[in-house]
Specification:
The chain is of the alpha/beta class. 26% of the residues lie in helices and 18% in strands. A seven-stranded mixed β-sheet has the order 3-2-1-4-5-7-6. The relative contact order is 0.15.
């Protein structure tokens, strides 16, 4: 099996379980449409607001980069990604794109943006310490932060399509080994996220709102969101 770093695109590995035109891809599109609706409802961006989207995908299709695909004021979006993203830039020429190095400080001054957002990235930054730095950087450069992650208690794990066995780290590791997907059990590739894990990443836990988004199944919903607003602007 290829290592995760040997794919043609930086982000192609994240869509192994959601092939184009598959049922899985349709579910991803539905979930991300709901995430976009929650982003608009909760953050309430105005046409003039500058938005930072951290971790856009260099995979072009119907399911990746839903903010760029749906937001009506693309010229107000600055997108960051790990790859050179020629296909992304061709697809969304109005969006300002910048390539960045993983786990590096964001290349912007404090409070450069009205909103910083990130979808399905936080679980891939390699360690809990990196996750905390990721959250802190978004808080530094923006007045609002809206982060979403896959929810580990959704019945099917998002990256591997393994059902039910991902509810604990040990059973997930065993299932990944059994199905030839051992790389996904490594923390450097994936940290399965729960509400408690997501809340613990914020320096002021009472200042962040954690909720369900995506495909709504109560406590088994497909995704989680975390929303923070700078205290002086509440």
């Amino acid at each position: 099996m290829d290592r995760l770093t040997d794919r043609q695109t930086v982000d192609g590995k994240y869509y192994q379980a959601a092939r184009r035109r598959s049922l899985a891809e349709r579910l991803v599109i539905r979930a991300r449409s709901e995430i976009y609706s929650d982003f608009m409802r909760i953050c309430g961006p105005s046409p003039a607001d500058a938005i930072l989207d951290v971790g856009v995908s260099d995979v072009v299709g119907e399911s990746p980069n839903l903010l760029e695909r749906m937001y009506p004021h693309r010229e107000r979006i600055t997108a960051l990604g790990l790859g050179s993203a020629e296909a992304f830039q061709a697809e969304f020429p109005e969006v300002q794109y910048r390539q960045v190095k993983p786990n590096s400080p964001l290349p912007f001054p404090d409070r450069s943006f009205a909103i910083a957002t990130s979808n399905a990235v936080l679980e891939h930054v390699g360690s809990v310490d990196n996750q905390r730095r990721f959250v802190a950087e978004l808080m530094r450069v923006a007045s609002q932060v809206f982060i979403t992650v896959p929810h580990r208690f959704f019945p099917v794990e998002h990256h591997t399509a393994i059902p039910l066995l991902h509810y604990s780290d040990s059973s997930f590791a065993a299932a990944c080994r059994l199905f030839g997907k051992a790389e996904w059990a490594e923390q450097r590739n994936l940290i399965l996220m729960s509400r408690d894990r997501l809340r613990r990443l914020w320096p002021e836990k009472n200042a962040v709102t954690i909720g369900f988004t995506g495909i709504r199944l109560g406590p088994f919903s497909s995704n989680l969101y975390a929303h923070w607003r700078r205290a002086a602007e509440r």
